[in-house]
Amino acid sequence: MSTTEIGRNLIHRINVGDSLTRSAWRRPEALALVDGDRRFTYREFNSWVNRVSHGLHRHGLRSGDALALASGNCAEFLVTYYACAKLGLVCVPINLGWGTSEISYVLDHSAATAVVVENEFLPRVHDALAATVSVVDIFLIDGEVTTGDPTLAAFAELASGSPDSEPEHVIADRAPLSYLYTSGTTSFPKGVVGNHAAIYLESMTMALEAQFREDDRFVAMMPMFHTAQLNTHCTAAILVGATIFIERRFDARRLLALIESERITQIFALPMMYSEMLEHSDVGSRDLSSLRRALYAMAPMPRHLIERCIEVFACDFYLLFGQTEMSPTTTLFRPEHQLTHTGAVGTPVIGVQAAIMGQDGGLLPTGDEGEIVYRSPHTMTEYLDNPEATAEAFDHGWFHSGDIGRFDDDGILWFTDRFKDVIKTGGENVSSLEVERAIYQADPRIAEATVVGLPHHRWSEAITAVVVPASGTMVDPATLIDKIKQLIDPYKTPKAIIVVDALPRTSTGKIQKNVVRERFAEHYERR
Amino acid sequence: MSTTEIGRNLIHRINVGDSLTRSAWRRPEALALVDGDRRFTYREFNSWVNRVSHGLHRHGLRSGDALALASGNCAEFLVTYYACAKLGLVCVPINLGWGTSEISYVLDHSAATAVVVENEFLPRVHDALAATVSVVDIFLIDGEVTTGDPTLAAFAELASGSPDSEPEHVIADRAPLSYLYTSGTTSFPKGVVGNHAAIYLESMTMALEAQFREDDRFVAMMPMFHTAQLNTHCTAAILVGATIFIERRFDARRLLALIESERITQIFALPMMYSEMLEHSDVGSRDLSSLRRALYAMAPMPRHLIERCIEVFACDFYLLFGQTEMSPTTTLFRPEHQLTHTGAVGTPVIGVQAAIMGQDGGLLPTGDEGEIVYRSPHTMTEYLDNPEATAEAFDHGWFHSGDIGRFDDDGILWFTDRFKDVIKTGGENVSSLEVERAIYQADPRIAEATVVGLPHHRWSEAITAVVVPASGTMVDPATLIDKIKQLIDPYKTPKAIIVVDALPRTSTGKIQKNVVRERFAEHYERR
């Protein structure tokens, strides 16, 4: 690589690491990260990233190599991510909800050659490593490196003794930055290849659309191993040079106190977290007036919840809708629509073109229901080593979301269901979400409900509700079915109601319908 | 090109044309362009662009071909630019201040195969074409096509009979979108190759930094053939889906009336235009309260002017600093600094890293003066067919601006002078701008002054001031020199003062020092 070629790359490239470099040059003394008692200015954060990047290079890691990252939310998580960006490495965040077999699969599939890990997760990673051969270095974020294991080193060692000069490596605009493995609803998770330009542009779009500002004070408490917290939130905050308060997990009391004490301006949480804060006894006594923006993700909020949120938090609410493959935000459900179009998922962001596609690959007119498809420079490169899944996802010149929805006359997108969660019963297609809404309406004592199609000799799939009663209450399936029948078409009414204590959820709180389906697969056969 | 390859490009690419497509899909009925009595929604604007794009394709234009555009500000200008973007053509805007020889040089150098032209400029283009061979099609925006010239066709014909479907061509992220020829201070102008990613990202940055919104109402009155009006202003407005009121030129009375009648929220003008509006008799009687942002470019405003602007226009003022090669904005002099750091050029925008470089290629510390250099994905691809100039501009892994400046302790950039305008006199380097400031201070009756170095047998270059007295006043060179001597070091004092009626300016109002230097080259020899 000639000096000229390196020089031109450094001048021109789109690189997520460069966005940190620029913030550090522009606002060196501004507060970047707060992690417990530790506070880092942009100068310190960038310098740390540069030193870790040089340290990883010293350990032999080279552009294109994959580095797995098994850690809860902490400063080191973001330092590792940006060090990868500046060195041209691919970061592979490990979902901390995974078991040994999933971790093992991902380490193997991504051909990770190094792992950065917190002590807490070291045993699981060690177990997973038994089945893989590629990993040669493990860097321990916390805890002491006391074993004689030559592959194990302290994360701190990467920075110590390294210069804090900017790493200068040739990295293409579309070079991979992350492999994010989607929580598998099929047998094996798929590795979503995220690239610098896609993630940089999505961050720009998000910062522009939700008006992120350099004087904003964000809380990062959703798992950083997920794209929403990592890319749409942290990378956009760092791009504009704002401050991030890192929390390991959501805690209603802590968060309410933090908003008051640190004059937090932006939070990002799940609907159930807002619900929990609203119910917390501290909510009335905390000063929440610093909040400008409240983002939420995963699902629309029911009307009573969003009304209460707007009243109590008194700031602008945005629902982020999208998926890992889109880096991830595709539509924003905006403050002005929260109460007029409650239940919708919003309008496309500036960087994304969204359309509804029919089964023949043609685009459908406004009002028609079909698969939501996208075009956007934010789109993933591909599924790693999976040309079949990639070709399927990119068929007909659009990215296929796997979501079903429609645009209304106001140009607002409504999400109907995941393709795979639509129930095919007696020749009809039924949206599981429509049935779920009817259940909540039929009996307010239902705390949680999920509706799936289960194998059935007559109906092909039988609509089945799995419900959790509110604590201290009971559910009579027959009575509930009668009530539901009065709200929706008879053929959409569940054939059976299964009462359970809890529903399986992903680490982001999403109900795992695939696990529900597997667990009760023989429900009708058994009968 | 396989269907799959086209499909993937359409999904992933960064393309300026796609930003219009997305705005038209998101806000079809929103007002996009107003040009006199003509009003176009985003649906209509996009449809027109698509039809023109298909029409150009029908005429044989293909990806990579260059199309010259000789037109004043009008809707057709933007339609042509976006039609080029969607077809993969390179748009070559013709500076309407150029003579036949410059137009001829640019048509030839860019190998333009088609020209879109307004009737007013057709004779000049025809004259210029005598010396070029590449142009095969001329499309006339206005006026009737009555000649028997087979190369001449009506611009309207491009759209008529074309479908309004989205053109689907493979266009790379870094494919060229424009050749912008810089007004030559050397013998031949250089063609700055702008690419889709650079221009798209600069537009995103501008929209983010100056908080462009979809409900903004912009006035485009600076020449669209310049990068500042075209890229940082129009492309960013179209990206967010705002409205652009197109004006052919600046007229203080018209603009003040337009701000009131159309509730304009954003204007972009030169300092002298703000000055003219402030002096206009209508300024007190017009309602200017709709203004949110006032952008200006070319030069900092003197303190009395910016103070008066803030008072009268009562909105946020931003100075855009940069150059065509950077697409163009590199720093923004922000509202909060206008009065505290009057005279500075601001802080780098989010997408740009700015530094000061010494003559040895090393970066200099804060406070030191040297060449302003940049790294940014907004940087041009290269100078067209000019590898020497490109290599020089990209030396040491930074883009060389040719500007001299320094950062102060607050991280704010101060522009000292253009490299080539620094005067080398008697072994010393003197900033021409410093001398100009002293002249204005020494005699308030000086309307305009420019300072250049002219060939001199003893001083190598002799500092020389060329001044225009305010109307009805006289200037005595000897007295003026004495007054200047009391303000600056003796060696910085002009050796001569030349009094003229007017100074030569570019179409953006910049004083052409190169023309001044040529005109008076023999001033000292003659003596």
Automatic annotation (TrEMBL), chains A, B:
InterPro entries (UniProt xref): AMP-bd_C (IPR025110), AMP-bd_C_sf (IPR045851), AMP-binding_CS (IPR020845), AMP-dep_synth/lig_dom (IPR000873), ANL_N_sf (IPR042099)
Superkingdom, taxonomy of origin: Bacteria
Membrane-spanning residues: none
Keywords: Ligase, Plasmid
GO molecular function, one term: medium-chain fatty acid-CoA ligase activity
GO biological process: fatty acid metabolic process
UniProt keyword Nucleus, yes or no: no
Pfam families named among the record's database cross-references: AMP-binding, AMP-binding_C
Domain (AMP-dependent synthetase/ligase) ranges: 21-384
Residue ranges of domain AMP-binding enzyme C-terminal in the record: 434-510
Family named by the database record: Belongs to the ATP-dependent AMP-binding enzyme family.
The protein's name in its UniProt record: AMP-dependent synthetase
